[in-house]
Amino acid sequence: MTEAEVRAAIRRDFPQAAERIVSEQTPVERTQVLTVTVPNLIPDTGTARVSYTLGHQTKRLIQVTILWGPPADPTVRQDALINAAEALRKHFAALAWRAGSVAGGVLLADGSTLIFRGLDEQGRMVQLQLLPAAPPANAAPTAPRPFGLRLAYVADPLNPDVFRLQRGQF
């Protein structure tokens, strides 16, 4: 999808958010990201941030990322995010995936938890993670650390269309 097609899809899928599309360039990957905020994309999960990433060279859609909880909505209940994560995990687990590509229930080195990851037969990836978030400034040191939920659909995770320094440039 081109930028115009993505914008049309946003207008169709989220008409209330279409007038508030935020466009930004990522400084390292040099991709363009179109972002909208959508209330209750999944019931009781607060406001979600939906981001559409357009590739560096092709300028076509390469990734869609949905973020619930902090920093998109720090007021959402943590149990609502756990329930949404479990509902999404069950949904994705019931679909067909490339043999050997499914993983989940893994604590990653960055402190996030991989809830589900799978590649379809075309090599496209779905990844669902719980992400640690910064605690509120007034939180007690023993208070549980808040987290967010991120769902990403990636067109080509093995060869993303992002800026790269070419071999021999330095």
Task: Record the SSE blueprint.
Layout (H helix, E strand, L loop, with lengths): L2 H11 L8 E4 L6 E8 L7 E8 L6 E8 L9 H16 L12 E2 L5 E7 L5 E8 L14 E8 L16
Antiparallel strand pairs: 1-2, 2-3, 3-4, 4-8, 5-6, 6-7, 7-8
Overview of this protein structure:
It is globular, with a radius of gyration of 17 Å. An 8-stranded antiparallel sheet has the order 1-2-3-4-8-7-6-5, covered by helices on one side. The mean pLDDT is 94. It has helices spanning 3-13, 78-93, and strands at residues 22-25, 32-39, 47-54, 61-68, 106-107, 113-119, 125-132, 147-154. The chain has 170 residues and is of the alpha+beta class. The two termini are 34 Å apart. The chain is built from 2 helices and 8 strands, in the order αββββαββββ. The protein has one domain (3-135, 144-154).
TL;DR of this structure?
The protein has about 170 residues and is an alpha+beta fold. It is built from two helices and eight strands.
List keywords for this structure.
170 residues, 8 strands, eight-stranded antiparallel beta sheet, alpha+beta, 2 helices, single chain, 16% helix
Number of helices: 2
Q: What pattern of helices and strands is seen along the backbone? A: HEEEEHEEEE
Beta-strand portion reads 25-35%
Shape summary: globular
User: Could you tell me the number of beta strands?
Assistant: 8
